[in-house]
Amino acid sequence: MKVNVKNHTMMYPAPAVVASAYDENGNADACTLAFATMCSHHPPAVMIAINTTLKRKTLKSILHSKEFCLAYPSVEHAAEVDYLGIESGYNEDKLAKINFTHQKGEKVNAPIINDFKVSVECKVMHIAEIGSHTQITGEIVNVQADEDVITNNKIDFLKLNPLAYDDITHSYYNTGEKIGDAFKIGLKYKK
Ligand SMILES: Cc1cc2nc3c(=O)[nH]c(=O)nc-3n(C[C@H](O)[C@H](O)[C@H](O)COP(=O)(O)O)c2cc1C
After folding, report:
1. Which residue's CA is minimally distant from atom 7 of ligand 1?
2. Residue 89 neighbours by CB distance under 10 Å
3. Ligand 1 centre from 185 Cα, in Å?
């Protein structure tokens, strides 16, 4: 039997990623986002959504610079990711507080956070106001990954061990094991 539960913004699995940008004074901002997903192959693009009240310093910085980086954290950095999501750059130099370093991206004027193993560099393509949030689409113009998460020149999901997030219970999760090959395990139904 199915039951109705409370309406809630939800997606499974959802990530916990970190968006970063420089503010108008060149200081690096970074905040944690669960509202983030892929949205185009050509050009490669991702979209993020940030609460529109400019209480989020990172949103103000992205709207100002029109460029941002998105880091895909590993499970080992859950506490640092959480901190970046519960403190504001208006109050603290958050990256310094957790001893994370950053440098300008290769293709964008936005900070790459060195301690995260995979980051994409994005140029803002499109901005839309969606209810409470500002949805920002970014064209991915460069991808950087640490060698230790690469297998055969590709990012290895299991080596990265990306952090997953459940907004219903406000919990972080491992993403688990490989269970099959996409575009293959369904072929048995295609005959
Ligand atoms: C797990 C997690 C997920 C979050 N996801 C979002 C999100 O998708 N959009 C958003 O606007 N804020 C999100 N937040 C809240 C911001 O990260 C938080 O308000 C942060 O302090 C903003 O920092 P800033 O002012 O330095 O930009 C999330 C926080 C956590 C802990």
Report:
1. 33
2. 22
3. 36
The answer, yes or no, to whether any atom of ligand 1 lies below 6 A from the CB of 68, is no
Q: How many helices (H) and strands (E) does the chain have?
A: 4, 14
Which ligand 1 atom sits closest to the C-alpha of 165? 1
Q: How far lies 98's CA from each of 67, 82, 94, 106, 129, in Å?
A: 23, 11, 7, 23, 32
> What are the C-alpha distances in Å from 91 to residues 3, 62, 76, 78, 97?
43, 18, 25, 21, 11
Q: Is the model's pTM score more than 0.85?
A: yes
pLDDT in tens, 101-132: 999 999 999 999 999 999 999 999 999 999 99
Which ligand 1 atom is at minimum distance from the Cα of 87?
A: 21
CA max distance for the chain: 60
Asked if residue 60 has its Cβ within 6 Å of ligand 1, the reply is: no
The string of pLDDT tens digits covering residues 69-103 is 999 999 999 999 999 999 999 999 999 999 999 99
Q: Do residues 35 and 50 touch, judged by C-beta distance below 8 A?
A: yes
How much distance in Å is there from the Cα of 35 to the middle of ligand 1?
9
140 CA to centre of ligand 1 in angstroms: 21
Can you tell me whether residue 101 is helix, strand or coil?
Answer: coil
| Domains with residue ranges and CATH for the chain | 14-189 (2.30.110.10)
Nearest atom of ligand 1 to the alpha carbon of 94: 26
